[in-house]
């Protein structure tokens, strides 16, 4: 007996009929979400490497939590041996939960007061 289920994420909503295919899609969802959550603070990691400017502790804690949650979800996906139990997991609130960061700015800062070479010749920002 073949069963299928829909993974409730868009885009796209996909029907799968095998456990390996369903796991691959679930892994993709987890990896994409983790990527999307980490991306806004990646510039801080690059800045730390290039200028030795420390990443705020709250951001480091958040990034570690996102990676830990992704690893936990991957472990849980791997533990499923039936499509029905995988479906139950990927449609659960637990699967949807991710760490949240506080209201720290995630955009790269720009100097408040730009410096100019000559009036009318453009503005340069120190980063």
The low-pLDDT segments are 110-127
* Largest beta-sheet characterization: 2 strands, antiparallel
Global geometry: elongated
Rg calc: 21 Å
Mean pLDDT: 80
Distance between the termini: 61 Å
What class would the helix/strand composition place it in? Answer: mainly alpha
Helix amount? 40-55%
Q: Report the portion of residues in β strands.
A: under 5%
Descriptive key words:
disordered C terminus, mainly alpha, two-stranded antiparallel sheet, 2 strands, 5 helices, elongated, 127 residues, 51% helix, single chain
Walk me through the topology.
Elements: E1 5-7, E2 14-16, H1 19-38, H2 42-51, H3 57-79, H4 83-90, H5 93-96
Antiparallel strand pairs: 1-2
How would you describe the overall organization of this protein?
The protein has helices spanning 19-38, 42-51, 57-79, 83-90, 93-96, and strands at 5-7, 14-16. It has a domain at 20-96. It contains five helices and two strands; from the N terminus they run E-E-H-H-H-H-H. It has a two-stranded antiparallel ribbon with strand order 1-2. It has 127 residues and is mostly helical. The longest helix has 23 residues, at 57-79.
Could you provide a short overview of the structure?
The protein is mainly alpha-helical and 127 residues long.
